[in-house]
Design brief:
binds adenosine-5'-diphosphate; 9-stranded mixed sheet; binds magnesium ion; 6-stranded antiparallel sheet; 16 helices
Length: 490
């Protein structure tokens, strides 16, 4: 199949012309394939009106497009266009489409014709009907369930979109084009594939026969503007005092573990903390899919690689973290710790790479530490658990817990210090917590952040070294809600 937008359903593959991309347009003829079937959900009344990017199409737009499109692919060899840059390819398509419209006596307004041209160029040169959705910054996710159903998530709400594909073959073609950018293929033999768009968006494709009603394409769009700590304060995820404590933790080179469930905001928080790294520090990031956006100039970004179709060439997180240590880093940032790389990260933290950070999936700071331990045990390191715990307590300074509460809001629920070990047990102390107080009438959770009354956390000396002890003391005092309330009552 051609790299370009040839429909799978169109059996008449034109032979490529010996030279040049253009032949004279063919005589007018009827399109060989039937017009696209109507979308199956057309008859079902929808609660939410589809969110179309302002595109209003006349009834027969898709018929006309289908006619013009088949004439176009009979006219040119689309693979020839790949030699051209986008601009020239567009010009070429524009000329031919104009010819076709004239020859076939198709009546349409200038605006419609421009629309048609845009659509066709998107099909041939880009990702077809997805292009208008990809261009929108307000969309977080795009979910395509077969050719005729596309949903998008905007502002945390999922709604249907009016975008549709001509048929499943066109959708499959778009999927193929996406995954070919990362050197992969999807077909019946390997129907599952992960890929990434050039802008950093993450893509998953699962094709028939596994996906029963046509290919299913999920795109998590890359957010260009990551949230900042100030924004998190505005959302109530943390208070200004809590944010100050986090800034000091980041700046004074504590080793930090960010713990939380899926979608609780771990990566977002990690990204916020990295803003307080000095610009002259050499930072190396290791991620499964690059998401972090460090502002510092001296950053090396590394990414793992899954095995190829033959099952070879995998580069694991552990490979990356181990390699990091030979790259003279000052800090190592691991996007998500989920396996034996935990051991190497702890070693790094323990051997002069202060200020290293990572996220981990757990529901409380204590659980985060025990998960770290089991990752090391499961990684096949033959170490007594006391040794592992000593290593954890010697390496990790602070655990920050993120949570997504049942009302959907995200909160930082703990800033907890690792204090040391007592016998076999790692001891921790909470220095800042979130108390759930109840629920208001609308089901929103009411609660408050507060410091726990610990006036001198263990990282106090670090903070002092970086000249932050006054700010730390002030934030801790101000956040000590319980004591301040008692004082004002007295
Ligand atoms: N405090 C927050 N308030 C609102 N939205 C947030 C907050 N933190 C993260 N998000 C959003 O939630 C989504 C998931 O966040 P992410 O940091 O990727 O979660 P995780 O890494 O825990 O899976 C992103 O779209 C992000 O912009
Ligand atoms: Mg994450």
């Amino acid at each position: 199949m051609s790299m370009f937008g040839r429909r799978g359903s169109d059996g008449s593959a034109p032979a490529p012309p010996p030279s040049g991309a253009k032949r004279p347009p063919p005589p007018a003829r009827e399109p060989t394939d039937p017009p696209p079937p109507p979308p199956p959900e057309a008859a079902v009344p929808q609660r939410d009106p589809p969110d179309d990017a302002g595109i209003k199409r006349s009834e027969n737009f898709y018929d006309i497009k289908s006619t013009v499109f088949s004439a176009l692919i009979d006219t040119i060899d689309l693979s020839q266009l790949s030699g051209l840059d986008q601009e020239s390819a567009r010009e070429e398509i524009r000329d031919i489409v104009n010819d076709i419209v004239a020859i076939k006596n198709i009546v349409m307004s200038i605006a419609e014709q421009e629309d048609l041209l845009e659509d066709i160029c998107n099909d041939v040169l880009g990702l077809g009907p997805l292009e208008p959705l990809l261009a929108r910054d307000d969309i977080a996710d795009i979910m395509v369930n077969g050719a005729f159903k596309t949903y998008i998530e905007v502002d945390g709400k999922v709604r249907s979109s009016s975008v549709r594909f001509r048929d499943n073959a066109q959708l499959m073609n778009v999927c193929q084009r996406i995954v070919s950018q990362v050197g992969r293929r999807v077909d019946e033999a390997s129907p599952i594939c992960d890929a990434r768009l050039p802008d950093g968006s993450r893509v998953n494709v699962i094709a028939p026969p596994l996906s029963i009603d046509g290919p299913s394409l999920t795109i998590r769009k890359f957010k260009k503007d990551k949230l900042t700590l100030d924004q998190l304060v505005n959302f109530g995820t943390i208070t200004p005092e809590g944010a100050t404590i986090l800034q000091i933790v980041g700046r004074s080179r504590c080793n930090v573990l960010i713990s939380g469930g899926t979608g609780s905001g771990k990566t977002t928080l990690l990204n916020c903390l990295t803003r307080y790294i000095e610009t002259d520090e050499r930072v190396i990031t290791c991620e499964d899919a690059a998401e972090l956006q460090l502002q510092q100039p001296h950053v090396v970004r590394l990414e793992t690689r899954p095995p190829n179709i033959e099952g070879e060439g995998e580069i694991t997180m552990r490979d990356l973290v181990k390699n990091c240590l030979r790259m003279r880093p000052e800090r190592i940032i691991v996007g998500e710790v989920r396996g034996p790389e935990a051991f190497d990260l702890l070693q790094a933290m323990n051997t002069g790479h202060d200020g290293s950070m990572g996220t981990l999936h757990a529901n409380s700071p204590r659980e985060a530490l025990s998960r770290l331990e089991s990752m090391i045990t499961m990684g096949g390191f033959q170490l007594p658990s006391k040794t592992i715990r000593d290593m954890i307590s010697a390496s990790i300074d602070v655990v920050v817990q993120a949570a997504r509460l049942r009302d959907g809001s995200r909160r930082i629920t703990h800033i907890t210090e690792v204090v040391g070990t007592e016998g076999d047990i790692i001891t921790t102390q909470d220095i800042f917590v979130y108390d759930v107080m109840g629920e208001d009438g609308d089901g929103r959770i009411a609660g408050r952040h507060r410091s726990t009354g610990i006036g001198k956390p263990k990282f106090w000396d670090r903070a002092r070294y970086f000249g932050e002890e006054d700010r730390l003391a002030e934030a801790l005092d101000k956040a000590n809600v319980l004591e301040n309330e008692a004082a004002s009552r007295a």
